[in-house]
Write a structure and sequence with these properties.
Strand content: over 45%
Number of domains: 2
Structural class: mainly beta
Number of helices: 1
Distance between the termini: 36 Å
Radius of gyration: 21 Å
Number of strands: 15
Order of helices and strands: EEHEEEEEEEEEEEEE
Largest sheet: 6 strands, antiparallel, barrel
Shape: elongated
């Protein structure tokens, strides 16, 4: 199934805010791209029953992401079509979860999405008693997150992690790539090394993790990635 994910879609997320006249307006808050399997469909029974007018319908399948769940209120853009999400269902294949979206478009020429200026973005990090599984990144649960600038260092605080844990970091690939780590003069290096494995990129995120349990300085468990 993974080989069929050869179409690029854009997810646009909005939040509703009140304008000066007391009405609601949709304000853009987030936009990102995903690889997807896209299948045009002949129609949709639920849309017909609800008497919703549509010109095209698509069945879109993407990998489920814990950090970026999808909602019915999200907007999907594909080949110039602004798609409305009618329903989302989850499907499992082996150890990987997929989301299947039934979408439609009325081709009414929706306003283009204008993302807000980006000064930083969210970084996720965590720890586990078992090694990180690069083949199933969505299964990992992160204990911490914070916003950092797109350039410069990421200061990930592992103070709450007990001894004997593997460490994981996830950051957007819009950041400058992090190639070094520093915990103390005795605990630092250039990734990959004997402590950290190779960085991988999946769905616009870079993943960094330890290949073994690191011997961190207990009084200085903030690791700087730069």
């Amino acid at each position: 199934m993974i080989a069929e994910f050869n179409r690029r879609i854009t997810i646009n997320r909005y939040e509703f805010q009140q304008n000066s006249y007391g009405g609601n307006i949709a304000a853009p808050v987030l936009s990102w791209q995903l690889w997807a399997k896209v299948e045009p469909t002949a129609g949709n029974r639920s849309l017909d029953q609800a008497q919703i007018n549509y010109s095209k319908t698509f069945r879109i399948t993407v990998r489920a992401e814990v950090s970026r769940p999808l909602f019915n209120t999200d907007e999907v853009v594909y080949l110039g079509n602004v798609l409305i999400v009618n329903s989302i269902t989850r499907e499992a294949e082996g150890r990987v979860n997929f989301l299947i979206m039934d979408t439609y478009t009325t081709n009414e020429g929706a306003e283009p999405y204008i993302p807000p200026p980006v000064t930083g973005s969210t970084v996720y990090w965590g720890w586990s008693l078992t090694p990180f599984d690069a083949g199933n990144v969505e299964a990992f649960t992160y204990q911490r997150q914070a916003d950092f600038a797109l350039t410069g260092n990421i200061n990930a605080d592992y103070t709450a992690a007990s001894v004997g844990n593997y460490l994981v970091l996830k950051y957007p690939d819009t950041f400058s790539e992090k190639t070094t780590w520093f915990n103390s003069m005795a605990n630092s290096g250039t990734m990959p090394d004997q402590v950290f494995d190779d960085t991988i990129v999946i769905d616009n995120f870079r993943y960094v993790w330890t290949r073994l349990v690191p011997a961190l300085e207990q009084n200085n468990k903030v690791i700087i990635y730069g």
